[in-house]
Sequence to fold (128 residues):
Amino acid sequence: QVRLVESGGGLVQAGESLKLSCEVWGRPFSLNAMAWFRRTPEKERDFVAAITWSGDSTYYGDSVKGRFTISRDNAKNMVYLEMARLKPEDTAVYYCAVDRDRYASGTGLEQSDRYEYWGQGTLVTVSP
Fold:
């Protein structure tokens, strides 16, 4: 059984940083792209960031470009999201997800419906 477990969420002040982690249990996903999405009252699945299976390419939503960094450690079956200069509008439940296809890259990684497995989410709250 595949399970994704996010951690690292919490309450921070605007301008501060936070690092989220996601561990994948059940089987290796070193050949699958992975991504972070977030849910807010306004948007069910807001694309945050994605990383290809090799880690060579990364993609970001416009609102987080230059502030967030996605990375992965395939040996540990982990994906991370480093968030800097946080803003109140970054407040959301953050989810990690695993792409259903192997070796995917480029166009389309921002589409939530291509991801097969999802974690339960971790809440990030940014106060003004």
In short: The two ends are 40 Å apart (CA to CA). The mean pLDDT is 95. The longest strand covers residues 92-102. DSSP finds no helices and eleven strands in the chain.
